[in-house]
Amino acid sequence: MESATDCSQSSPASCPPSGSQSDAASPPETAALSASVGNNATQHSPHPPPPPPPPPPLPSTLEPQQDASRVQDSKFNRTQNSIVGPPPPPPPPPPPLPNFSGCPPPPPPPLPGTQNSVIGPPPPPPLPGFTGNGPPAPPPLPTGPAPLPAPPVGGWSSVYHQARKKPVTPKAPMKPLYWTRIQVQNAAAINESNNENLWEKLDEENPDNLEEFINLFSRQVVRPKRDEKSKDAKAGHKTKTVQVANILDCKRAHNVNIFVTSLRLEIAEIENAVYNFDTSVIDTETLQKIYEIYATNDELEQIKAHIKNNPDIPLGKPEQFLYDLSQIPFFADRVACIMFEIRFSETLHSIETRLNNFKLVCETLMKSKGIKDVFSIILALGNYMNGGNRDRGQADGFGLEILPKLKDVKSSVDGSVTLLHYVVKLYVDKHISMDAVLQDIHNAKLPVPEPQNLERASLVVFDDIAAELKKLYSQTQGIELKVNRVLEDCNKNDSHLEPFKSRMQRFLENAYKSIKEEEEILEICMKRFPETIAFFKWKPKSTNQADICKEFFANWLPFCSDFKDIFMKEIHKRIKADVEKAKEKVKESKSKRTPEVRKKTEPGGLKSKLKSRLNQN
C-alpha cells in the first residue's frame, strides 16, 4: 500500500500515464502486480476480502446500477485505480464447465502463507493486440455431447418384437426363397385400421408331411470334417489376435481374398452345387470362377505341409478357403464335368448351325425353281443384247462373274434403271401373282437365297470344322476319364453317387452320338460343294478350299443382296398401284349411281303447329 500511495503522490513523469503502453503490459506483469496488491490488501484488512468482481462491461453500455453493484470494496478499488489508472479492457469470460450450467467455477487453492485467507483469482490478462476500441466477440460456448434419442413407445425391446409370428427354426438347412417380406401390424392396430388386405387374415397352411418337404427342398449338404486343432485355432483367433500363416504369394493371396470376400458363400453351399448340380444359389458362372481360382498342386502341398508341421498356427483366409475346397472329393473333376457339359452344347450348336446353313444354300442354288427362272431371263436378255456378236452371242449359259455386274448396265433413257431392275420386273410379271400378294404379302417369295445365309456360307472352312469336331471328341474322352474317376471314388465311399452318375452317363452317350452326326453332315457338305460348282460350270482360280468357297460366294452375295432390295421395292410399288386402282374404281362406281330423291317431310312438331294456326288467323 505504501508503494502505491507514493506512486500516486509523485510527479506524473514517474507514473505511467493513462492509456500508455503500460496499460497493455504483458500478462505476467499484470498478474504479478495484481497479486502484490491483493497481498497488501489482505495484510491490512481485518476480514478476508470478498471474491473479485466480474470484468466490467464496455464503457458505452455501463450503467450506474451496474457500477454500484460492481464496486464492493471502495478502499481496494481506490488503491488499485490509483496504481494502474483506468481498468484494462475486459477479456472474454471463460467458458463454463460442462454439466455445470449457471454455476461459477471453484476458487483456486490458496497461495502458500495465506493459510485461512481466501484470495480471488487474478484478473485475466487482456488479449494480444487489443487497442481499447472494444473487446472482441467472446468465443461460442462449448456444447455438450449430443443427447441420446428418445426410446420408442414401449422401450427398445419392443422394436425387436414387432413380428406377429414366432420364428421358425428348420430341422435342416433349406434352400432360400428370395421374396420380399411383408409384415402387418399387430392385432390391436388391425382392428383400429379400416384398410383390409389379404395378409392380415391369411393363415398359414403347413404341409401334412413336413419330412417330405424337408427332403425335397433341403440343401442336402454334408459338411466336411474339420480337424479339431484347426477349430481350436479358429476359436482362438476370434478371441484374440493370433498370427496366421501366409503361404501364398502376396498377389495371389490378395486376389483370392478379394474373391472370397465378394463371394459371401459357405463351403457347404459350394458342396451342394457340386454334388447335386444345383445352380439355384451358385450359378455356373460363379462355379467357373471358383474352378479357375482352385489351388495348384504346389500350393496344396505347401498348405498341407504347414498344417502337419505347425498345427497351432492357423491358416490365413485365402489359404483356408483353398484348403476347404481341396477337402471336397474330386472338386476339380466334378466342376470340370459340369462346365464341359455347358460348353459342349454351345460348341456343337455353332458347328451344327454352320453346316446346316451351308448344306441348305448349296441345295437351294442347285434345286430352286426361282434361280432357274431368273437365270432364264438373264440368258434371254443377254443373248438379245449380244446378238450378232461372234464371241458372246448365241450363248447356252453364262459365267457367274456377270451376276454382280448386272446393276452396272444402266438404261440409256433413265439412268436410275439398270438391267437388274428390268430382270426383276420381268420376273414379277411372269412368276408373281399380285392377287395372291394382295391377300398375303408372304406369297411374294424371293427366288434367290437370303444374303445373310450366303455370307455365313462363304465363311465355312471344312478343315477348321473337322479340327473342331476332333478336338471336341478328344475333350469328351477326357471328361469320360474324369467321370470314371469320380464314380470309382463314389462307389468306394458309397457317397454322392447320384445324380452325378446318371446325368453324366446320359450326357456322354448323347455327346458321342451328336459328334458322329455332325461328322456325317460335314462329309455331305464336302461332297455337295464341288457338285454345286460343277452344276454352274464355274472354274475356281485357287486350289485351297477356303479360298474357293469365298471366291464362289463372292459372285452370289452382291447379286442376291441387290436383287432382294429391288424385288421388295417392285412388290410394294405394285401393291400401292393396285390399291390406287381399287380406290378409283370405287369412286367411279359411286359417281355412276343415280342419286336418290328424298321427299321433303312436313314438320309436325309443336312449333310448326303453332305457326300454322297463327297463319290461319
Automatic annotation (TrEMBL):
<dbReference type="GO" id="GO:0051015">
    <property type="term" value="F:actin filament binding"/>
</dbReference>
<feature type="compositionally biased region" description="Pro residues">
    <location>
        <begin position="46"/>
        <end position="59"/>
    </location>
</feature>
<feature type="region of interest" description="Disordered">
    <location>
        <begin position="1"/>
        <end position="150"/>
    </location>
</feature>
<comment type="similarity">
    <text>Belongs to the formin homology family. Cappuccino subfamily.</text>
</comment>
<feature type="domain" description="FH2">
    <location>
        <begin position="164"/>
        <end position="589"/>
    </location>
</feature>
<feature type="compositionally biased region" description="Basic and acidic residues">
    <location>
        <begin position="582"/>
        <end position="602"/>
    </location>
</feature>
<protein>
    <submittedName>
        <fullName>Protein cappuccino-like protein</fullName>
    </submittedName>
</protein>
<dbReference type="GO" id="GO:0005737">
    <property type="term" value="C:cytoplasm"/>
</dbReference>
<dbReference type="Pfam" id="PF02181">
    <property type="entry name" value="FH2"/>
</dbReference>
<dbReference type="GO" id="GO:0030866">
    <property type="term" value="P:cortical actin cytoskeleton organization"/>
</dbReference>
<feature type="compositionally biased region" description="Pro residues">
    <location>
        <begin position="85"/>
        <end position="112"/>
    </location>
</feature>
<dbReference type="InterPro" id="IPR042201">
    <property type="entry name" value="FH2_Formin_sf"/>
</dbReference>
<feature type="region of interest" description="Disordered">
    <location>
        <begin position="582"/>
        <end position="617"/>
    </location>
</feature>
<feature type="compositionally biased region" description="Low complexity">
    <location>
        <begin position="7"/>
        <end position="22"/>
    </location>
</feature>
<feature type="compositionally biased region" description="Pro residues">
    <location>
        <begin position="135"/>
        <end position="150"/>
    </location>
</feature>
<feature type="compositionally biased region" description="Polar residues">
    <location>
        <begin position="36"/>
        <end position="45"/>
    </location>
</feature>
<dbReference type="GO" id="GO:0005856">
    <property type="term" value="C:cytoskeleton"/>
</dbReference>
<feature type="compositionally biased region" description="Basic residues">
    <location>
        <begin position="608"/>
        <end position="617"/>
    </location>
</feature>
<dbReference type="InterPro" id="IPR015425">
    <property type="entry name" value="FH2_Formin"/>
</dbReference>
